[in-house]
Design a protein that fits this description.
The protein has 453 residues and is an alpha+beta fold. It is built from 16 helices and twelve strands. The strands form five sheets. Strands 6-5-7-8 form a four-stranded antiparallel beta sheet. It has a two-stranded antiparallel sheet with strand order 1-2. It has a two-stranded antiparallel ribbon with strand order 3-12. The longest helix is centred in the C-terminal third of the chain and has 31 residues. It is elongated, with a radius of gyration of 29 Å.
Length: 453
């Protein structure tokens, strides 16, 4: 149980970091100010500020977020938003004074620290350039200078922030709009939001290529259990048989055998097998008609598949690939996984696959992660590949609160030439939140019912 929980936490943490790093990197490249990069949701239990960003760990796991400057719902920054921006600029000044060595790292109160800096730089309300250089290690920016002068005039950082929020100086608003997410051109906002799912999708073949280069266990096409009353047993296959070819194509792994049967569409499949006998191995030719039955997926859910009723004996070999071949295989297999995921989602909406059998939540994911962790790094990494791909694709669904919902809003904005009405966006977000809460409750209850039943 402990292994399952730890494996799930590690996998989720890695995938969250990858997803949020996509948003973070593109946002920074676009000039947007990123206030926080968090793994886990509030309350914040640990963090460190580097530059403009607070890198944090939240107490609520299984999630994360990148918080950028600006409220993506509001049409214009509120007084509270401007006050928050002013406080961020104060933290920039404190960070600069700390890095220069002028301000000791003694954990003093932020308001006290910025007051000390302002009293030194602008004791009479005017910024002394030489003094600023010695304190900050650089000249203050135009917006930082505005903050310094306001604090010097008020004598209190808190009061200065309130006055700036009320007055909304044009210079401060202009700089805010230059760095805030909502005021960026549409193409930039689209790229920033798309970067998260894209990072997860891109991470899948990268991790898969690493697995192939390090060495992945390959299950050989040697038959183990043969299910009675199934096509394979009826046709004459027996435990210990090694499959040589399927439909004339050489088979070197169990995956190749399985995929060929599942892709048969119910058409007869021609096998050439090798069977060990007392007088030496013999080769047999068999034709088997697959049967459509509900099969258990890696997640413990049921999905109709064409099968013949055989399981592998467990014979394995370790295969290591060169970088070029590893990348090639990784891209091909990731494409196959994405296609399978798309078909699975289509079958859910079509009603072919029952929702209760198709969906699983954190409990099921922890179970699968634990099982794969016991099998070794390669198996756990393969699970992470699949989960990363699913996370990336599902996040593109046009559901409010998901990245796909934001992309839908941006698409509508591009077609209309202006954003949706603020009230409409708020309603959409509320509906999206309600749907996600219902979905989360459903999958957790579904997981519990599987455990009990």
């Amino acid at each position: 149980m402990i292994t399952s929980i730890l494996a799930a936490v590690v996998v989720f943490a890695v995938l969250i970091i990858v997803h949020e790093a996509g948003h973070f990197i593109v946002a920074k490249r676009m000039g947007v100010r990123v206030l926080r990069f968090s793994v886990g949701y509030p309350p914040r239990i640990w963090g460190v500020r580097r530059g403009e960003t607070d890198y944090a760990i939240g107490a609520t796991p299984l999630g994360g977020y990148v918080r950028m400057l600006g409220d993506e719902i509001s049409d214009e920054p509120s007084a509270q938003t401007i006050e928050g921006y002013a406080q961020e600029l104060e933290l920039d000044l404190i960070g600069a004074a700390t890095r220069s060595g002028w301000l000791p790292r003694d954990g003093r109160d932020d308001d006290a620290a910025i007051k000390t800096i302002v009293d030194k730089i602008a004791p009479d309300g005017q910024i002394a350039a030489g003094t600023a250089q010695s304190v900050l290690g650089r000249d203050p920016t135009a917006e930082e200078s505005l903050i310094i002068r306001e604090i010097a005039a008020c004598g209190s950082p808190g009061l200065a922030r309130e006055r700036l929020g009320a007055k909304r100086p044009s210079a401060l608003i202009a700089q805010f709009n230059a760095r805030a997410f909502p005021t960026q051109p549409l193409r930039r906002r689209f790229a920033i939001v798309l970067a998260g799912p894209f990072a997860n999708i891109l991470f899948a073949p990268i991790l898969l290529a690493v697995v192939f280069m390090l060495g992945a266990p390959v299950t050989l096409p040697v038959l183990g259990d043969i299910q009675k009353d199934m096509p394979a047993y009826t046709a004459g296959l027996r435990s210990g048989d090694r499959v040589l070819t399927v439909n004339g194509a050489k088979v070197e792994s169990w995956d190749e055998l399985s995929l060929t049967v599942k892709a048969s569409g119910g058409n007869p499949v021609h096998f050439v097998i090798q069977r060990a006998q007392a007088g030496g191995p013999v080769t047999l030719n068999l034709t088997i008609q697959p049967k459509l039955v509900p099969e258990t997926t890696i997640y413990g859910t049921k999905q109709p598949m064409w099968v013949i009723g055989v399981l592998p004996r467990g014979d394995e070999r370790i295969e290591r690939e060169g970088p070029i071949r590893a990348v090639e295989l990784a891209v091909v297999q990731t494409g196959g996984m994405a296609a399978s995921l798309g078909i699975g989602v289509y079958n859910i909406f079509r009603g072919t696959t029952p929702v209760r059998e198709a969906l699983g939540g954190p409990i099921m994911i922890a179970q699968v992660a634990g099982r794969e962790a016991h099998q070794g790094f390669a198996d756990l990494a393969m699970f992470a590949v699949m989960l990363s791909l699913e996370l990336g694709i599902i996040n593109l669904f046009p559901v409010p609160l998901l990245d796909g919902g934001h992309l839908l809003f941006f698409t509508i904005e591009g077609l209309r030439g202006k954003p949706l009405n603020l009230r409409h966006r708020e309603i959409a977000m509320q509906v999206g939140l309600f749907l996600l809460v219902i979905l989360m409750a459903f999958v957790i209850l579904n997981d519990l019912s599987r455990l009990i039943g």
